[in-house]
Each structure stands twice: as C-alpha cells, then as structure tokens.
C-alpha cells in the first residue's frame, strides 16, 4: 500500500471522517478518494497539500495526524535553522 493511502486510511478511520465527507470538502468525486484510500492511485504532491487543507478544515487534529503519518520522521526531526 502506498504511504499516502495508508496515512489517509488510518487518519480517516481514527477521526471518523467518511470518504464522502472528504470528497465533498475537496470537491472531487468520492471514487477518487476511494482510490487513494485503497492505494490504487497515489495522489500528487499538489493533491496531498489539498488533502491537508481539507482535513484541517474538517478536523485540525486529523490534518496533523495525516502529516505525521505521511511524512513520518521528516517532521519530527529538528531541522537546521538559519539562526547562527
């Protein structure tokens, strides 16, 4: 299963957000969300950003979980700053 599909599935289930509700928020057909959910198709980078924005409108905690699951260690590491 693709990382985005697995992250989306776990997030929607954990926060009890239906595929239809996300599809309505994204203004896409529910079948599209279903294909992501079942990892039949991977969403593009631009679409990932749209998913995060839609989840944030529906439930900010769901957006945070999706980001954590999708990006994993990349967001939990201390990234170097520009400060000296």
Which labels suit this protein?
0% strand, 434 Repressor (Amino-terminal Domain), mainly alpha
Q: How would you portray this structure in words?
A:
The protein is mainly alpha-helical and 84 residues long. The chain has one domain (3-72): Orthogonal Bundle (434 Repressor (Amino-terminal Domain)). It contains 6 helices and no strands. It has helices at residues 3-14, 19-26, 30-37, 45-58, 60-71, 73-76. The mean pLDDT is 90.
Number of strands: 0
What level of helicity do the residues show?
Answer: 55-70%
Query: What class, by secondary structure content?
Result: mainly alpha
Helix tally?
Answer: 6
TL;DR?
This protein is mostly helical and 84 residues long.
Give the secondary structure arrangement, pairings included.
Elements: H1 3-14, H2 19-26, H3 30-37, H4 45-58, H5 60-71, H6 73-76
Helix pairs in contact: 1-5, 2-3, 4-5
């Amino acid at each position: 299963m693709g990382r985005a599909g697995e992250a989306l599935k776990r997030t929607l289930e954990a926060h009890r957000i239906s595929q239809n509700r996300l599809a309505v928020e994204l203004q896409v057909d529910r079948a599209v969300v279903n294909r992501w959910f079942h990892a039949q198709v991977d969403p593009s980078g631009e679409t990932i950003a749209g998913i995060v924005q839609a989840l944030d409108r529906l439930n900010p905690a769901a957006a945070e979980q999706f980001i954590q699951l999708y990006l994993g260690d990349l967001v939990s590491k201390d990234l170097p700053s520009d400060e000296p």
